[in-house]
Amino acid sequence: MSSTEAQHGDEIVRVENVVKDFRSGFGLRKKRVLHGISFSVRQGEIFGFVGPNGAGKTTTLKILMGLIRSSGGSASILGHDVRETAFRKHIGFLPENPSFYDFLTGREILTFYAKLSGVSGSQRAERVATLLKWVGLTQAADSRLRTYSKGMLQRVGIAQALVHEPSVVFLDEPMSGLDPIGRVEIRDLILRLRAEGKTVFMNTHILPDVEMVCDRVAIIVQGCIRYQGDTQELLVEGERETELVAAGLSAHSVVDLEERFAARLRGLGDRIELRFAEKNTDEMIRAVLDSGGRVVSVAPQRASLESLFLSAVENAEAPESGSALTGMGEVE
Amino acid sequence: MIAARRILAIAMNTWREAVRNKLLYTLLFFALLLIAVSVFVATLSYVERERILQDIGIAAIRLFGVAIAVFVGVGLIHREVDRRTVYTILSKPLSRTEFLIGKYVGLVFTVWMQMGVMIVAFAGVSLAMDAPLGAVHAAAFALTGVELALMVAVATLFSAFTTPMLASYFSVGVWVVGHLTRNLRDLGAASDSGAVAAITAAIHRVLPDLEAFNLSTEAAHGLAVTASDVLLPVAYGAGYAVILLVIATLIFERRDFR
User: Which structural domain, as residue segments, surrounds residue B45?
Assistant: First the structure.
């Protein structure tokens, strides 16, 4: 990558005020699915793009991949407008639930993608063999793809995204439909890509994975970016909670504590687990003891990405807009 | 040069997909069967056995050639979008135009290859029945090849924006009307109404004149053809196909793959 390719310092992906309207009903009806979103991805990081189903994650990724044209705003990768094609030799893409020509074998499909990506003939066979070994498909390399399981197709998808040694990799729901072992393998692979200096953009709704691997995260809800920033900072900024386990409380006392401290309850046999805001810890302990109960344990809880995510979804409101298009509603 | 390599990669893959498609072999089987039956039909006649033999043979090659061009061609782009294989391909350094041209070239190559098999069968039965084979036959088959390439372009155009079902209706419609536009123009010219003459002439100009590629009568009767009888239709067919592919590309470039 030349210095001119990264126009904005170390920003590898730059999305500015991107809007997308989908037309339906002979083009008379418009539905706005992206409301001027902006974010950037820095070199060498794993960026998590998180949101519930239908939030606009895949639409955004398709705009970046040139599969969908944005209705407004700009998007660039490595300093190039996403509508260009030549720079794509530097990027790899794994779509959600990837689909391939099932009449080809694993080796044939990777050779085909290597050709399209400009891998030279002298390096092609070796590169394909390396990738097949890397994703654990050497044994099945000469079987037709129609005989592959979902997990094996996901591995083919990863191999084709990496066959030309891209510097930026885009993954759409890479853990989707995988068993726990498959998820761990993909997670390790993503971390390995970062260790090799590659930039990884990951669309996902599996939050524990995001917490574990992503350096930065953006949360998109209803086509708007709600949070964006360093994953650890987001978690620190989030409201801290305390988990208290108590015993010997009457049903009446439990209801009273739940209401007074806006606590969340979970029954643990003859004990009860209460989760509440950290600032109320001292008062809660006193209240439990005053109610004749016994404090079994008290543990501080770090805010999880899940709680931030749920908070973002709950707080999501249709954006105010001067245009006729608002929220997710349809307009004539 | 690099673009040519990418187009070739798509074309080779399209050819590989087509030759692994059972529909293609079914159509080829019936074409070869019809050519074989032409021998039987010809032996029933006391006169012009060779002409009947070659009439049926050439008709079989044209008919089944068009069937392959249309029924494989109409799903060419739609299948890629429907199966989502287009997602990974277009994320590579490949333009949509290169992709579409590659698909087109691959299918034309496949159709021509199938036509070659049918021509070999035709030549075999002609030699077995002592029917003449000459330059006029080569010219007739060359123009049939151009017509099929044009029909693949028609099918590709419709495939770029509609479903295979509608695309097949439209493509077959263009093929049928394309063989009638010349007669339509002549009928319009003979009418008393200037407006009718103008309309039929316009239809003839806009829709492909597929009769321009029909030398089957000349071939069956062993009539002489001139260089211009072949070269002009070749230029016409190539120009028409290019226009259709440009339109298909413009439509395909604007599509959102949701």
Answer: 2-179+214-253
